[in-house]
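Note to self: keep these together.
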Amino acid sequence: MRFIPNNGPVVREMLDEMGLPSLEALFDSIPPEARLGRPLDIPPGLSEEAQLRLFEALAGRNEGQAYSAFLGAGSYSHYIPLTIDSIIQRGEFLTAYTPYQPEISQGTLQAIFEFQTFITILTGMEVANASMYDGASATAEAVLMAGRLAPGRCRVLLSAALHPHYRRVVDTHTRYLELETGTVPMDEKSGRMDGAALQAMLDDGVCCVVVQQPNAHGVIEDMAAIAELARAAGALLVVSVTEALSLALLEAPGRLGADIVVGEAQSFGTALQYGGPYLGFMATREAHRRQLPGRIAGATLDADGRRGFVLTLATREQHIRRENATSNICTNENLVMLSALVYLTLMGREGLRAVARRNLSQLRYFLDRLAGLPGYAPAYSAPGFNEVTVRCPRPAAEIVARCAKRRIVPGLDLSRWDASQGGLLLVAVTETSTKAEIDALIEALGEAGEAGQ
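Structure:
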């Protein structure tokens, strides 16, 4: 219920109950010299209706309200069904406390269990957890897990096409551990991991190979070939997925040889909201379940044979006794996880595929239109999903600035990641990008490209 301020008679009744003559008497203990002595210099209160009108007017002053954006790079614009808000705003879901007491947490535990089930289906793995902060920290946790699974091996090979923010998180987590990171170069023509370079770098000191799918340049990696090389060297394969919707169309990483699959589930019902909070996920093979960090919800039977849900395979103390823990991550992502669960439940297998196909179709339309622009071309030959790196006729920063004048954010200037990539623009096209917006983007790119000629 909405808060309704107490009216005059009620206030008088309360003061009489306390034996006070006035509201001011409540503050007699405050010295007179410490009091303001006048009303606050603020406008009078507004009605709820007037407040809404005011906030709508303020929001209308934000220039971003009228922009069309083609940014991706780890955070993607997807349609969010209104049903999600209706469910996650229910009071019983608004606690962030970990459901350690199963007898009063069956609904929350079942939601975690169902989310884990969806993740295992999408990734092709056998067991999943539900307490990763985001895709970047989940990737770092996967590297640490691989180190525990391969004692004596201390080298980690990271794809050059791994999202640079993910790379920085991995480097931070491993900096003071007995783990050394190396970089596998990218093939400059295809945009995929260089297989020959990977093979040359693999030896009995490598604990894992980390590859992003699709990679940070939007390119779909040849995961089966990478898995074969890693397996031959006795190294684990960690696959990181920043665009979870791609799992609806691409072959599941687990069926292609991945040992640990992690990623970012923001695409499943979570708004962009300035970069977070988001939702990491992590899945692995049954043989590795004891090294899986975080919490896992499992199904069991009670004393009367009724199905119930509990936290399993890890005690609460594991998250407190640092020296015995597989991870120090012990927060609760249940509310964001619930958004993803409701989204996946509403969409279903065919709904997810339909949205993913639409993303693929929108990218195809953009590339067809781009082919008619002088000076522009995809930077890499390998196929992508809903994101593509575009080589521009001028510095991408200038292209972005000129398109902004037309209220279009054309993508990410990759010089923000690497100064040597100043001529590259990373463009993301999802189901929220209309054909009219794509046409306007093509027109703006054309004008921006010709401006310097």
